[in-house]
User: What shape does this take?
Amino acid sequence: MISENSERGKSQSSGFTLIEVLVALTILSISLAVIYAGLSSNVEGRRVSIDHQQATLLAESKLNSLGIQTPLVEGRTAGRFDNRFRWNTVVAPYSEEGEEVLEEGQTRPVQVIVTVTWGEPNNERSVSLRTLRLLRENPL
Assistant: This one.
């Protein structure tokens, strides 16, 4: 009799109960969800960083082409680099308080602002670069 009871006790204690398996699966599911969320936010952050870097390079390129490939004239211009990135350029007179007004034909400073935007309308991002350039006005 004693041997039968000891065998019955061994068979009941071997293996996992259904509750133990469910708890283990729950812990595994939560762990995988946290890991997935961390990886997806990392991928999103990397994409935003790459877009920002590309927009900065495009803005630098546009800024460098002003006065060389395209004329440097006062006013606003806009366009697209591709389907994702749009640019806007503003060339405006630059002056500080107390500065005398320059006569026509003189070289004068202008402020140049190039802004590159991208993204959806509800999540639009942009990069702006500013510089000063000298503009020589040709008298008529």
